[in-house]
Amino acid sequence: MNDPVTVTQLRHQLNAFDPTRRRQALLALCDLADRGLIAVAPPAEVANMHCHTFFSFNAYGYSPTALAWLAREQGYKLMGIVDFDVLDGVDEFLEACERVGVRGSAGIETRLFLPEFATREINSPGEPGIAYHMGIGFSSSAIPASVQSIADDLRARAADRNRAIVARLNAYLDPVTIAYEADVLPLTPGGNATERHIVAAYVAAADRLADPVGFWADRLGLSRHRVEELRQDPAAFQTTVRSRLIKRGGVGYVPPDSGSFPRLEAFHQLIVACGALPCAAWLDGTSEGEQAMPELLDLWVGKGVVALNIIPDRNWNIADPDERRRKVQKLYEVVELACAYDLPLHVGTEMNAFGQKWVDDFAAPELAPVRQAFLDGAYFIYGHTLLQRHLGLGYQSPWAQAHWPTRRERNAFYTRVGRLAAPGPTTTARLRRLPPAPDPAAVLASLAES
Fold this sequence. Notes:
Layout: H1 4-13, H2 19-34, E1 44-51, H3 64-74, E2 76-84, H4 90-100, E3 103-113, E4 130-136, H5 148-173, H6 180-184, H7 195-206, H8 212-220, H9 224-231, H10 234-245, H11 264-273, E5 277-282, H12 293-302, E6 307-310, H13 321-340, E7 345-347, H14 371-391, H15 398-403, H16 407-420, H17 425-432, H18 440-449
Parallel strand pairs: 1-2, 2-3, 5-6, 6-7
Antiparallel strand pairs: 3-4, 4-5
Helix pairs in contact: 1-2, 3-4, 7-10, 8-9, 14-16
């Protein structure tokens, strides 16, 4: 069973669209690891709390289960998933994390319209008033009936935007055309497609032509030689197709307006009803909106935001030394600002574009001043997730608000929980033996024993 080919096959099976096959593969790999037949790295103080799964788009094709196993095998102590517009992977991921002994969390991401910044670009390049925004710390894929319509609206809006993109591209790329339901949706297990799935479908359709290189050279405005070069790296080629055809300026680009995306208030209503946490997203501090970060944070916090998401790698891992210095300084400034606003940090690499890392380089000198804040934020969101999932006593609960009226006090408690609580059935059993609405000291004592 420890044959390298078999192990490779099991890793591949972790990404099967059939959830039963994914679970079977995980159990088999865990058994091999538990018996010492697969080498796994010891847990290290690193975290990637922002990994997209194949329920939206993961560049490596990873399922929620595969990401949990990746963390176990590579020794990542904390890992979280975030998917666009859906919560389909939450239960699977949290259950897999508990099985493999990884501190896990789960979230959702979407784009929304912020009328107060309608004339200013925020974190969606070239799109004033449009903001990427998140909910983190979900404890279940189940959605309360009271907000199910909001979740349905997110999925429907995404599908409508995709169909509009396909209609534009079919007109431009004819004779290469695709059908959204027949050619795009089968590329994702939950029917939640993204622009990257659309691009993959067009590339596959064009490959059936007698001269796909000539076709793409004409449609992309590139030389045959350049197209041939790009096609040597399928990931780079798909990125080029998406950039030239779907992003701003491309023929498939659908300009957003105030009705294209949900409002922040509705998205927050969904998040809070699920016992999760509204989380703002920061890009790099250079847009007009992000240059007014105190104003933006005042607005967000006033509407319920309690955390801030950062993608560290794009803010320091930059070849140009001058740009690197500028971006690193912006990173330090926003971390300091988040601390002043009592907003825990949620960091990760995304994994939804080719070439993005499995985990940030926490040993990078540029990250040394902010490393502890990154880790504190990861432990915080795991601590909230654990208590919300097993006791209904997460950050938003009346229990938490009664014991710790301020965000700073609550942040400290859930961060401590996250550090104390070893993931796995022993911790779960101890928590479930606690009485209803336990004293916080009893919670911490129970976790310390585990």
